[in-house]
Amino acid sequence: MKKSVLFLVCLLISIASFSQSTGKSIAIIPQPVSIIKGLGKFTLPKSIVIQAENTPDLSHTVAFLRERLSEPTGYGIISVTSSSNPTIKLHLNAQNDIKLGNEGYSLSVTPTLVTIKANKPAGLFYGAQSLIQLFPVEIESKVQVNNISWTAPVAEIVDYPKLGWRGLMFDVARHFFTKDEVKQYIDAMARYKYNLLHLHLTDDEGWRIEIKGLPKLTEVGAWRVNRTGTFGDFIPPTADEPRDYGGFYTQDDIKELIKYAKDRFVDIM
User: Fold this and answer.
1) Mean per-residue pLDDT for 67-80?
2) What's the predicted TM-score (pTM) here?
3) Which are the contacts of 52, defined by CB distance < 8 A and separation ≥ 6?
4) What is the pLDDT of residues 132-155, one digit of tens each?
5) Which of 136, 157, 253, 255 is the most exposed place for a label (fewest CB within 10 A)?
């Protein structure tokens, strides 16, 4: 099961990477409502200036861009509230653009400036996700990559979701995944603009959430004898076999995951 999560993440990255590597068109996942490709390209400078309001709602989008752009390039990045020469400008509309709604954005890439506009912080976050997909596939690296031309095509992109509920289910009941692995799953969801995580916490194979008034739910229900093989052919556990496979999330763990998801505009159900 843990391999399947890694496979999902790698598959989505591979699809995006293959699409971008063709160079024939601008490929963003999910496909935006409108893409108008222009002439020329935007080249990421070695000193990147992100202009954005200094508010908690935008802090994660700025942090996301800082991390994703600095790790593979090694370039310096600063964020400011005002600049005469910004590299990337995040702008919340003073007057709502009705077609964008709460999660839509417009992304303008010119040879000298990237501008993302939205009605709400979620739109800016999703616009930032799309911007990252415009750069060479090496932008996915967690370590510095040399001899890469960090360019993005000039384009005007508009996107807003067709569906308000865009969810995935993560089954942690049958096989336990650590808190960090759940965060990895949330990051993959956010990358492709999913906004609802169904965290499946209980089933006959396991109980994964701490209930302080009923401690045996996790003392007993969170652990079982590990079995591998073909479904239906497992040998039933004996009474003396150690129940040491499993785990559960404390209430503090759940609070942390909810906040982690919320920062990425994902709600946990």
Assistant:
1) 96
2) 0.86
3) 58, 61, 62, 79, 81, 89, 90, 124
4) 999 999 999 999 999 999 999 999
5) 255
